[in-house]
Protein 1
Amino acid sequence: MEERVRKIEEEVKAFLVASKEDLENFRLKFISKKGAVSSLFDDLRQASVEEKKKIGKVLNELKQLAEDKFKHLQEKLDSSPDAAGGQIDLSLPVVPNKVGNLHPLNLTRYRIIEIFERLGFNVSDGPEVEDDWHNFTALNFAENHPAREMQDTFFVEKNPDVLLRTHTSNVQVRLMKNQKPPIRSIMPGRVYRNEAISARAHCFFHQVEGLYVDKKVGFSDLKQTLYHFAKEMFGQETKIRLRPSFFPFTEPSAEIDISCLICHGKGCNVCKYSGWVEIAGSGMVHPHVLKNGGIDPEEFTGFAFGMGIERITMLRYSINDLRLFSENDLRFLRQFKSVI
Ligand code: DAH
């Protein structure tokens, strides 16, 4: 009897199944009540006690083998594309091939560049690992001024200090050194601060710096340029407001607010019920900074501004948590169409 069991086992293993019909034949031949395995069990009843023990075990294994094979083949056939009637429907639309899209911060960056390029600004770049001179000292930050404290950062080396830049303003003096006025440039890039991560702050974020140096550049040029930008970026009905402020590298300095896009000035939690949202710092370039850039402040004047790309993107798309930009959650990222 043992030999017969081995023979059926070989047959189960060798049985080829290519269709549902074959599978049904497999089931009838081996697994059904009148199948080979059942009849072996019938025969087993006549066997001696000793044989029952020995063959019973092998027979159970054979039964399991046949059932497993049946289950496996059934799943395979059910999930194959021609399971339904053995035909592929060529008229069905294809499954779309996901090619990805631009990150929302890049969408905003490109839009900012587009707006300023049309005003005659070019795009400049500067290092993220920076020396103290370009990030602070050349920008008129005094050695122990508290303004340095407000921009605490990560130091790569101490004495002489090498650090991760705290703002894109570090490109200003590099630009002045390399270029004669008129200078009209924007400088987008990543910046770093030693801050705890929350919905409103991160240890890195992105800014766009702007610099315009020429003869007779005045505060009205600054105001009109940023007003134009705000309208292009957020819609023609957008208003701006300038608030007096302090930056070591500008004099006078102003914070730029835009009218709240969410409540249109009525007051909501985005604008903290003021009707205004801050988007940039700005001012007239300090004469010390011009001098440090090798430009004569008697002959030339300039304005500068710096804005956060995250902030603008959050306003543009009503995003309420800064962390979403760097978590790489595809459910978030796929919502942005690559249209600038
Ligand atoms: N660098 C400033 C900051 O990160 C922003 C800023 C303010 C840039 C005034 C400027 C400016 O160019 O004129 O807070």
Note: The CA atoms of residues 224 and 255 lie 14 Å apart.
Protein 2
Amino acid sequence: MAAPVRSATAEPWRDPSAQPFVRIEGVTKTFGKVYACDDVTLDIYRGEFFALLGGSGSGKSTLLRILAGLEAPDQGRILIDGLDVTHLPPYQRPVNMMFQSYALFPHMTVEQNIAFGLRQDRLPAAEIRDRVRQMLELVRMPQLAGRKPHQLSGGQRQRVALARALAKQPKLLLLDEPLGALDKRLREHTQFELVNIQERVGTTFIMVTHDQEEAMTMSSRIAVMDTGRIIQVSTPAVLYEYPATRFVAEFIGGINIFEGRVVDSDEESGQVRIQCDALDAELLARHTDPLPEGTSVSVAVRPEKIDVHETPPERGTVATENVVVGKVRDIAYLGDVSIYQVATGAGAIVRVQETHVARSSEPHYDWDDTLWLSWEAASAVVLTA
Ligand code: ADP
Ligand code: MG
């Protein structure tokens, strides 16, 4: 998982007195029998780089189009900067949208593409010249001002589309899969650049993506969507460490999920004991609310939170709250890390991740090696939904 690149900023969503900049209130949109958006309520704050993350067809683009005014909701309201824009046409909203296809005019130069919206708005010529120059500098393209789109690389076209969208100085910029047309290497580079530009201009960005790594790397907060609903809204770190549901846990990063039943919960320590038949073990996990005995739950543990031992771990030296033994069934060497699949006697597969620090520490476990796996109660998340 890439480290978040965002600099530390205030977290207005933690401040109960902070006014949201964008308010989505109970928005529902159906197409025939399909609920593209199903009672969506969401607050977004000024200056955020907010991501709508979900699989294909989860309703992300529909929600973005409703914000832009390209689609009318069946129910609910949209407020931007305190103004109810629900019934305003797109051009009367302080919003601009950047499409995945970029939709650049092929017969116009870079400069003319960026100036297009400003000319339509009949801005004075000097103002247009100034803004186009600023935008060209912002996206580092002054030397390419005279080129046509077909004379540009994919990454350069993406930057022109961004410059054109920002030239109108919208209060809110909507980006639908903004990096979707770029290949993997260019996408990673462009992620950093886009965050950097957003921080410099300070405009509120709402981005749609199906790529969890992209959302994690770029966003201040993420709303995870599934079948038109918002499942969880949080910072990348909280989504990763404290997924609220199994769907979120499995959608964001790699994770082990073990089914089990609650044996008992200790309110004082906040620990729950869970019988897990597939591991033939009792697991200890942290959970804030007490759970009744017998409740069906899942225990989720990230592969990198699991320690690997070649002999049974001794109490007191390492975490022995959860210990499972198994044999190596598969090894994936990924350069910086190796992922081992360890099969337990009861038939469960546990994925563990070992980070390579020095060259000499490259995969040192082999197929059929017996390994003891251990993790702390605090590293496991109990999922009830
Ligand atoms: P996403 O952007 O997350 O892939 P969309 O918002 O495009 O999802 O679509 C959500 C659901 O609404 C899908 O089932 C899609 O088929 C449906 N849908 C979206 N737009 C239309 C439309 N104009 N007509 C009919 N169905 C639509
Ligand atoms: Mg879409």
Note: Residues 60-61, 208 surround magnesium ion (ligand 2) (CB under 6 Å).
